[in-house]
Each structure stands twice: as structure tokens, then as C-alpha cells.
Design brief:
With about 290 residues, the protein is an alpha/beta fold. The chain is built from eight helices and eight strands; from the N terminus they run E-E-E-H-E-E-H-H-E-H-H-E-H-H-E-H. It has helices at about 40, 70-75, 85-90, 110-115, 145-165, 200-205, 210-230, 265-285, and strands at about 5, 10, 30-35, 55, 60-65, 100-105, 175-180, 235-240. The radius of gyration is 19 Å and the shape is globular. It starts with 5 loop residues before the first strand and ends with a helix.
């Protein structure tokens, strides 16, 4: 017999409390904190994000500080947006935090998109290839020294979030769940007018020939996953979702298979990912 699950209830930090109009974590079986990029917040008005597809065996309150476009660096810079850090460690007076059963972190994806941007041709991760180039491998399209700096940046910022949590009197024993992404297809499939696409223009601007565009995109996602899988922090758990989704068709200009646009899954795609997330989280925190 299948176990029934309950969709999470998502609130923003100001909604937490015990008074009239507030939502009390005491009324739920689990209380989780979510911070992250557009996979946690993109299209939230229409329910198209991962958090809105999560469901657990226990009633779960999800306090979310996620916002579209967040990079890992921004998440770690809690002095700029203190809500995330304050919820974890209680703030300057130690009285504004909450004990969480799990912390969910979606980070690194927007950083990668920024690092291959067509706005900084040949000045970040990607090489500008001469016309007529036929690169033998994805590595031929990447500045190795730039990747080393990028990887160091990712590890440092994941480490800052890990240390913040580990040193918190409230959440020193709370697990942090991070994730790999999945394989996007470089397509002319924007999220909205003026918002994307992201990968395709970057690859075109760097002179990446069409046969190498998908292998290079896959390689970048795999290398990002390799960083995530090897963070090595005692309080960090990796939810590996690479290969869960069905790719968008090459040349698609909108919703295709499990993808709503070039870099965001559609509702069905997020539902697939949510099943993997549920299994990993409940394996860790369920009694």
C-alpha cells in the first residue's frame, strides 16, 4: 500500500510566530528552511518550482528565503540579506532563530550561468573560439584557470553556509541538503520576454560550433555536480538528481519534455525531482 504524503506549506520569514495571523511551526511535524535560486522560486505564483512539488509523510512547514536569480555568493553574504542567517543562528541577540529539521539549499546553478554569460566574452569560463574551429572536446572550450577560480569560489561559499549552520546553537546538528542539477538543452527558449535564454546566446557568442554545444553544456553541469558531490562537510548531504529528467528536444522554443524553458523544469519535471528529494530527506531525518 502506498504511503500517503502531505504537500508542504510554504511561508516567508515574517509569517512565522504564534500570534493571530502567524503560522506556528509547532503545528507541523517538521519545520524546514529553504534558501536558493530559481529552482526554489522561479514562477512561484504559478506553482512552478521545486518547493511547491515537495511532499512528505509528515506535515511540513517550509520557511523560504529563496528568490529568483540568487547566486551562492549572495546566499552566503548574510550581512546583505540577513533573514537566512538570522533564522539559523538567532541573530545578534540569539532570539530570532528557529530550530529546523532540515535546511534545503539550491545553489551553484545561477553562478554557472553567470560565469558563461555572453556579456563577458572570453573573460570568464568559456574561450572565444576562432571562426571555423572544431574543438575535440568540451575542455577545449574552457579556460582551465578560470574553472579553478570558479570551483574555489563555489567551495568557499558552500563552506560558509555549512559553518554558519554548524556553529549555530539552534541548528548545529541540522543537516543541509544540497543538490546536483540536470542536463539543460541550449535552446532559444526564454522564460519570458527579456528573461533568457541563457546558455544558447553564451555559446553562440563564444563561437562554440553547433555539434559541441550540447556536449559542452553537459560537461559544465557534470563538473558542477562533481563539486557538489565532493564538498566534504559533515553536515551537508547531497541529493543527486543528475539524469532524472528527460531532456528538452533540441531546437525547442518552449515547454518540451520535462523542461519549461531553457534552464527551468516544468511542473512534471519538478514533480520527478521532488520524489528524489523526499526519499533522500526522509532517509536522513525520519525516525
Amino acid at each position: 500500500m502506498a504511503t500517503s504524503v502531505k504537500p508542504v506549506v510554504i511561508v516567508r520569514p515574517p509569517q512565522l510566530g504564534f500570534g493571530d495571523g502567524s503560522v506556528s511551526p509547532a503545528d507541523f511535524g517538521w519545520h524546514m528552511l529553504a534558501e536558493g535560486d530559481s529552482w526554489f522560486s522561479f514562477g512561484s505564483l504559478f506553482g512552478n518550482n521545486l518547493l511547491n512539488r515537495l511532499a512528505f509523510a509528515r506535515s511540513t512547514l517550509m520557511t523560504s528565503t529563496a528568490s529568483p536569480g540568487d547566486t551562492l555568493g549572495h546566499m552566503a553574504e548574510w550581512w546583505r540579506d540577513p533573514a537566512f542567517a538570522t533564522l539559523i543562528d538567532g541573530g545578534p541577540r540569539g532570539k530570532q532563530g528557529w530550530k529546523f529539521d532540515a535546511i534545503l539549499l539550491s545553489g551553484g546553478g545561477n553562478d554557472l550561468i553567470d560565469a558563461v554569460s555572453d556579456k563577458f566574452v572570453d573573460r570568464q569560463l568559456l574561450r572565444k573560439l576562432p571562426a571555423g574551429s572544431d574543438p575535440a572536446s568540451p575542455e577545449d572550450c574552457i579556460h582551465p584557470e578560470a574553472w579553478a577560480l570558479f570551483e574555489n569560489y563555489l567551495r568557499a561559499n558552500f563552506g560558509m553556509v555549512s559553518d554558519l549552520t554548524a556553529n549555530s546553537p539552534l541548528n548545529g546538528a541540522t543537516p543541509i541538503f544540497v543538490h546536483t542539477y540536470d542536463f539543460p538543452t541550449p535552446n532559444d527558449a526564454p522564460a519570458a520576454p527579456g528573461s533568457g535564454p541563457w546558455l544558447l546566446p553564451a555559446l553562440v557568442a563564444h563561437g562554440i560550433p553547433q555539434p559541441m554545444r550540447q556536449p559542452l553544456a553537459d560537461h559544465l553541469i557534470e563538473r558542477l555536480a562533481g563539486v557538489t558531490r565532493t564538498l566534504g562537510h559533515a553536515n551537508v548531504r547531497v541529493i543527486d538528481t543528475l539524469g532524472t529528467l528527460t531532456r528538452a528536444a533540441s531546437g525547442a522554443t518552449g515547454d518540451s519534455n520535462d523542461w519549461l524553458n531553457e534552464i527551468h523544469p516544468n511542473a512534471g519535471g519538478y514533480a520527478k525531482l521532488a520524489v528524489v528529494w523526499r526519499g533522500a530527506i526522509e532517509a536522513e531525518i525520519a525516525p
